[in-house]
Amino acid sequence: MRFIKPLRIAEEIIFVDGLWGTGKSIIGPVLGSFERVEKQKLEPIYEHLSVLDRFGKIDPDSGAAMMRLYADIALFNSMISREVNLRPFDDSGLLNNPRPLEYMARLLYKDGDAVMERIREKRPILQIMTHQILPAARLAFRSFGERFRIIEMVRHPLYMAQHWFSYIERCGRDPREFTLWIEDGSGPPLPWFSSGWEERYSSLSTMDKVIYSIKWLYEESEKAMSGLSEGERSRVFLIPFERFVKDPWHFIGKLKAFLGVNPTERTKRVLRKQKCPRANLSAGKGHGSYGWSGPLGSDDSEDYSRRMEFVDAKASPEAAAELRRMCGSYEERFQVSIPRRGAEYGA
To answer: pTM here?
Structure first.
């Protein structure tokens, strides 16, 4: 016996993915302003199933059936605003995304077959926000095939460090932290991305954990990309945060081509709300509870310097040097240029 889900409701599915602190919350509302794209939904089940699949902890057929089932449930519920998020401060909340009145009106729509008729007529695109799923994306590609796209937000490693520093020690300790944890039998639970280097991870200082975890996830993302077919790779679109917030319309055009749908008049309003384009890389809204504190200087060069000073004060010399190597590689690959103050802050 095998579990299956051959019939489907969700014909087009987007995962907006990225490591913690890469700026996914900017892209979600922007996409939601495009024609046919639904408001972003944050549902961790997709990343949890994907991680279990990566490590062989779930039957492949069962995992694919569950992914398809949850996608169909998510789209059906979205079309009647069942489980709509009314929290005013959440990124996925109704007021922080386009078309709030439309989603309120859906509360009064008929259920059942009438929903299916609206789905056939409107052809909505399901939008799901995930966290660092790319290293484990094999299951999603296997489950959804050509109807699936990943928009992967990437960001300069230095600008993730403070966010990660304030968060990473919650893994294995805080019951409100919902990343999958693992155990190696010799200590407390650890985040899944420490698998294969658990002993070293446990021995590191907090900032060193941050640096080497980001390094591991970026390297595993590259390995995952290289393992995809050419067609699958064409369905992954990488967006460097720094370039998007400075010149968002360049990427709006590329997203239009990538998804095959148009932006709308709402797109301009969403970009303004997200403070794009912006003069300073750190001038967005951010999350204070996750270590975001706004710009640490009057311009990008001073901001960069102070962030590097923060890392240097808390990292080992070896980890700080590794971060600088990562910064250099990132800037070269994604054509990101950040002004420096002083040669000692160069990557």
So the answer is: 0.92
What is the rounded distance in angstroms from the CA atom of residue 259 to the CA atom of residue 236? 11
**Of 207, 192, 49, nearest to 130 (Cα)?**
49
**What is d(CA 279, CA 190) in angstroms, rounded to the nearest whole number?**
38
- Compute the CA torsion angle 158, 164, 165, 169 (nearest 10 deg): -160
**Element holding 181 (H helix, E strand):** strand 181-182
Sign of the dihedral through C-alpha 113, 118, 121, 125: negative
Q: How far apart are CA 285 and CA 257, in angstroms?
A: 28
User: Which residue would you say has higher pLDDT here, 232 or 296?
Assistant: 232
Q: Which of 307, 279, 305 is nearest to 293 (CA)?
A: 307
Computed over every residue of the chain, the mean pLDDT equals 92
Q: How confident is the model at residue 96 (pLDDT cuts 50, 70, 90)?
A: confident
Domains of the chain plus CATH, in order, are: 13-336 (3.40.50)
Distance CA 138, CA 140 (A): 6
Rounded percentage of the chain residues whose pLDDT exceeds 70: 93
Q: How far is CA 317 from CA 208, 259, 314, in A?
A: 10, 44, 9
